[in-house]
Amino acid sequence: MIYLDLLIGFLKVGMFSFGGAYGAIPLIRDVVLHYGWMDEDALVDMIAISESTPGPIMVNLATYVGCNKAGVLGGILATLAVVSPAFLFIILLVTLINGLAGKKRIKAAFNGIKPCIIGIILAMGVSMVGKNCISPIISEKDILPTMLTIVLAAVFFGYHALFKKKMSPIILIITAAIAGLIVYGI
Questions:
Q1: Is residue 50 part of a domain?
Q2: pLDDT in tens for each of the 186 residues of the chain?
Q3: Quick one: 121 and 160 in the same domain?
Q4: Is 178 exposed, middle or buried (0-12, 13-18, 19+ CB in 10 A)?
Q5: Is residue 118 in a domain?
């Protein structure tokens, strides 16, 4: 039964995830919580780990959840389920692209989808900030995540102001990992 659940759950994620990995996070969250594969805190941790490791977030999360819940076969099944729809869609799209690329309605549809994807990503970001940064302050619990977020934002924007170029995501991830080790102990 777990194999069927992994297949169906991650096929849903693969089929209905538009806008890349960040746009898929709300759908991944819904599927993972619905099946009880992770709780909210574990999911946030896995999103951070998946973002920090090579490869797409969706693939990393699917592989982790599949392996965690059903071993190597589960990991393979979940990974194939999450990537198959996009793979098939790209093959279909490449086949049709020459005839459709210049069509006004196709361009209009994609221009309509872009703001939706931006809204989904923004809503997930706001939700994560609220849960992990604002909620601890209001409930007077652990405010370290909020302080760490502020410090990392200052490092990011300070780097940009100082060097007049954007900070590499790799440097920011390494900085965040080091700060996490310092704040939460080795």
A1: yes
A2: 999 999 999 999 988 876 666 778 888 899 999 999 999 889 988 888 888 788 788 899 999 999 999 999 999 999 999 999 988 988 887 777 666 767 788 778 878 888 988 888 888 888 888 887 777 777 766 778 788 888 888 999 999 899 989 888 888 888 888 888 888 876
A3: no
A4: exposed
A5: yes
